[in-house]
Amino acid sequence: MVTCPFLRSHAASAALLLALLAGCGGGSAGAAPADTRTPAHTAQTLAAPSVLTVRAKGSLHAGVGPVMVVRLNQQVVGTVEVKNTADWADFPFSLPALRGGDKIDVVFTNDIAANGVDRNLHIASLSDGTTVLLPFTTGIVIDRGAGAAAFDGLDLLPGSSTLASNGALRLSWPGGPNAAASTLPRRKAAARLLLQASFGPTPAAVDALAATTDASWITTQMALPTTDDFVRGVQARYDLGDMNRPGGDQYDPSEIVRIFWRTAPAAPDQLRKRTAFALHHLFMVSQVDANLWFHSRAYANYLDLLNRHAFGNFRTLIEEIALSPAMGIYLSHLRNRKEDPSINRQPDENFARELMQLFTIGLQELNPDGSPKLDSTGQPIETYRNADVMALAKVFTGFTWGFPDGQMSNDKFGWLDPTYTAAGDQRVDLQRMKALPDQHSTAEKKLFTGKPWAVTLPAGSSAQADVKAALDTLFQHPNVGPFIGRQLIQQLVTSQPSAAYVGRVAAVFNNNGAGVRGDLGAVVRAILLDTEARTIPAPTSPNGKLREPVLGLLHWMRTFGATSTNGRYRMGWQLDPLGETPFRAPSVFGYFRPGYVPPTPAFAPRKATAPEFQILDENSVAAWVNLAGAMGAGGLGWVDNAPEVPGNHSHLLNVLTNAGVSGLLDEIDVLLLGGRMSADLRRILTEAVVGIEDASTRGDPDRVRLAVFLTLASPEFRIQR
Fold first, then answer.
1. CB 484 within 8 A of CB 314
2. Helices 184-197 and 203-210: angle between axes, nearest 10 degrees
């Protein structure tokens, strides 16, 4: 069951939320809620550009409702008796197109109170189809008195939703729905790029990007210095004393996650951090591994190396990954012994297999555009055989912790671990693995026999020479560009990129324009500036991706400046039902597979990949709505009956005050949806926000909270396009 404490005070909004969720499985905008009012009371006139719609209801006396007169620049444009008492109704008034500064008066003319019955006029909103104003918006007043007294400016009250005596609700029509209307298209485009290239837009980030070009912003981002946030954070914990180091009573490997929540949303080098997060999905190392759990600094160093090499060369990155002790622990080639026929021992093949299958070339030979090559019978061609796995496994034998020369011997190879006490800490977990020559296989190693890229590593070669030759061979394999390029596109832009898109990115991987192969910075630039990335897809286009839960949460944190009040970020329990907890993937295959095709009519017939749908089900959809409710209402985690990670809505409150409901929705559209808000969702949000009649100091915060919640819960937020 979906629960949200905030919605209990706004029960009428529940139907709106359910309507949004109706389209969640397919990623389309939710259907509008059914309108059960009479045709005269529908909101269809909201869209008419030459109509002012006043949403109102009345309190009757003697069967007569309040009479409402609307004036434009002192001229009467319409009169109506308001007889609906329970539900709001929309009353349209035809008039010339409104301009900024036009004077609007909504006049109540027949007040009476007798025999305990009081006739009143209640106003929810005024709209020209674009701009929506609430009656208690700053600058709106009630001028009390009948006839000319309603316009004399002498007996004034702040604007209110209730006219309890004869008088006029008076206002000047704003200059537009948003003070920055002229820049709105560019701000939307900027926000959309930030959805792909960062952990989410902020008002300042949107404005900064809108003031320059996409290419210039990318160049600036790539030039920002790197920081080893994870190692620095873990080391700070270690420096508190031995009790906080491995083996100590207060050792806490989950500090890694807290570092992530603290640094990812706030870091200036957003593009680097976002790319490193994508690379971690490709080159998975997970703290689920019990052996790795003990070595949190080694794991922190692995995450930092992804960050350091995010825009470097793929060949360098793959070598750093291969020789990382964290990867060595995770895929068991740390302390991998050479073969010994006398006891029928063969090297561990775990890393060798995943190095090919997941990290470089994949399972099938590919064309330059990522489509599979086929043999003469029309079947895909395997990239490697078991003999290749066995040969590559021998390459990665003899490696262990990077102790100084002379401290490692054959008898210590199988058991010597780093000492983590402050007195004995040599920080070997921050070093590449080293090879002990006696434990490395010196046999001849043949890779890809019969293929154009076949190579033989001669007998007697050192571990270093074997690793270099093997990685050089894999790096030059024609599969790497389309295989890695497609996955990075999936991570940043769209789950189902066209073959042409993959081909263009693979071409940049093969040659960055200066004859360099494997330039990841050039690849990321090509992905983000490609026409398929920068063109807003049509509603029927398959372009787009379901945003994984962690990215959705980070978006909220970054946009609303959410940080922990005590540095603990104890909100993991709210993420667990969503199928993704940072750095806790169930296996080397990650949380979801890049080739996953949902078994539904929308995907299966087209063989359309949608990786993140692998962790989407009825339970995780409900869990996300619960999470959205918490984020919209105030924040995540709880300490002393208050959110431990609160969001800050001050910017949206200022927008609501200065630009009204329309300006608020424009800004939410930019910051949360990248300018893709559908007409249906905008209507739903407008009705929900206008439906809060509270004119007290709580009214506007509640309007903002409800609008944020409904947007976060919508399929339009979950689907990045």
1. yes
2. 110
The sign one gets for the Cα dihedral 554, 556, 560, 562 is: negative
Q: Which two tokens stand for residue 124?
A: 């929810």
Which domains, ranges and CATH numbers included, belong to the chain?
5-32+544-720 (no CATH), 46-172 (2.60.60.40), 203-250+257-357+384-476 (no CATH)
In 401-469, where do the E strands start and end? 434-435, 445-447, 455-457
238 strand-pairing partners: none
Distance CA 166, CA 151 (A): 11
Q: How far apart are the first and last CA of the chain?
A: 29
Classified as helix, coil or strand, 459 is coil
Positive or negative, the CA dihedral 477, 478, 483, 486 is positive
- pLDDT of res. 435: 96
- Closest to 417 (Cα-Cα) out of 406, 428, 409: 428
Distance CA 571, CA 691 (A): 31
Beta bridge partners of 144: 167
Q: Is 91 helix (H, G, I), strand (E, B) or coil?
A: strand
The whole-number mean pLDDT for each consecutive block of 10 residues of the chain, a chain of 721 residues, reads 36 37 35 31 40 92 94 93 90 87 93 91 86 83 93 90 92 61 75 97 96 95 95 97 97 96 97 98 96 96 98 98 98 96 96 98 97 96 97 98 91 93 97 96 97 97 98 98 98 96 97 97 97 86 91 98 94 88 95 95 91 95 96 91 94 92 95 95 94 84 97 96 91
35-to-16, 17, 52, 95, 310 alpha-carbon distances in Å? 11, 15, 21, 26, 51
The confidence score (pLDDT) of residue 575 equals 86
User: What is the reported pTM?
Assistant: 0.85
Instruction: Name the one residue in this structure whose structure tokens are 């990335």.
Output: 533
Question: Cα-atom radius of gyration of the chain, to the nearest Å?
Answer: 31
Distance CA 694, CA 120 (A): 17
**414 three-class SS:** coil
Helix axes 679-690, 699-713, angle to 10 degrees: 150
Residue 166 tokens read as 């004869």
Residue type (1 letter), 293: W
The CA–CA distances, whole Å, from 698 to 44, 555, 630, 650, 705 equal 30, 26, 18, 13, 11
Q: Give rounded-to-5 percent helix, strand, coil for the chain.
A: 40, 15, 45
Q: What are phi and psi of 118, to 5 degrees?
A: -120, 125
Structure-block tokens of residue 455? 């190579």
Closest by CA to 193, choosing from 175, 171, 215, 174, is 215
> For residue 49, what pLDDT is reported?
53
Cβ-based neighbour number of residue 97 at 10 Å? 9
The pLDDT of residue 96 is 81
Instruction: Concatenate the DSSP letters of all residues of 306-348 into one string.
Output: HHHTTTSBHHHHHHHHHT-HHHHHHTT-TT-PPPBGGGTB---
Interhelix angle 296-308/229-238, rounded to 10 degrees, is: 160
